């Protein structure tokens, strides 16, 4: 596969998907391959990488109900709200940047692991946004987001 530059959004996204797929494949042969860890590492790179303006502009146009209708995995938002993909990415970025991410267990099986994200305002006693998703759905979200980036940039 020919890649765009890793300095470009689509090039970084392509490599992220390939690494995620390699770990998932390795897990079929190696019980010590940590799919959940790779899923979260992939998500970190995808939401933190400085995206091109076209990607961010298009993400603002996609509402969460639009994504659900199109088959994207859904985050269970239990506190606060997000109206579109751009806001969701912003909340996830804040959660991971400030280490407000927790796991329900240490299972190596992604569908068994819940991943919880919290976005806190400085000085607050409680988070203003909380969402969760299982690691298998987070993997699918990462794959969908990678495809989204590639389609917008091309």
Written overview of the protein:
- This protein has 154 residues and is an alpha+beta fold.
- The chain has one domain (9-153).
- The chain is 52% helix and 12% strand.
- It has helices spanning 9-27, 35-48, 53-61, 64-69, 85-97, 135-153, and strands spanning 76-79, 101-103, 114-119, 129-134.
- The protein has a four-stranded antiparallel sheet with strand order 1-4-3-2.
- The two termini are 16 Å apart.
* Number of domain units: 1
Unreliable stretches, pLDDT < 50, 5 or more residues? none
Strand coverage percent: 5-15%
Cα end-to-end separation: 16 Å
Structural class: alpha+beta
Shape: globular
SSE order, as H and E?
A: HHHHEHEEEH
User: Helix tally?
Assistant: 6
Fraction of residues in helices? 40-55%
Give the strand order of the largest sheet, numbering strands 1, 2, ... along the chain.
1-4-3-2
| Number of E-type strands | 4
| Average pLDDT level | 88
List the helices and strands and how they pair.
Blueprint: H1 9-27, H2 35-48, H3 53-61, H4 64-69, E1 76-79, H5 85-97, E2 101-103, E3 114-119, E4 129-134, H6 135-153
Antiparallel strand pairs: 1-4, 2-3, 3-4
